[in-house]
Structure formats: C-alpha cells, structure tokens
Design brief:
By secondary structure, the chain is mainly beta. Helix content is 0%, strand content 36%.
C-alpha cells in the first residue's frame, strides 16, 4: 500500500492486484484474507469488522 498524501480525493485512490495491475472497481474482484470482528460498547453499532487482505484477483 502506498502512503496517501494529505488532501487526497477519492479519485486518487487505486486498488491493485497481487501482480500490480490496477483493479477495475466497476467489475467483480476476489479478495482473500482473514475477516475479524470486534465489540465496541461505546459505539451505537456495537462494534465492527475488518479484513486483512492477502490476495486480490480480477
């Protein structure tokens, strides 16, 4: 992942697969990784989840 400079716009973000090819976000991609969840009693939603990604394919 490249560091994003301050003041970036959504259009500045790119997702790349494991071979470095730019992902077309209008098409389906397969993401492989570990999905984790957490509880947060201070949040109205009660927690959330995140995914550590190991591989992206399109």
């Amino acid at each position: 992942m490249d560091t994003v400079k301050s003041g970036y716009q959504k259009s500045d973000l790119e997702v790349r697969d494991n071979d470095g090819n730019k992902i077309d976000l209008s098409k389906k991609a397969t993401v492989t990784g570990t999905l984790s969840s957490f509880e947060d009693k201070t949040s109205p939603e009660g927690g959330g989840c995140y995914m550590k990604v190991y591989k992206i394919e399109q």
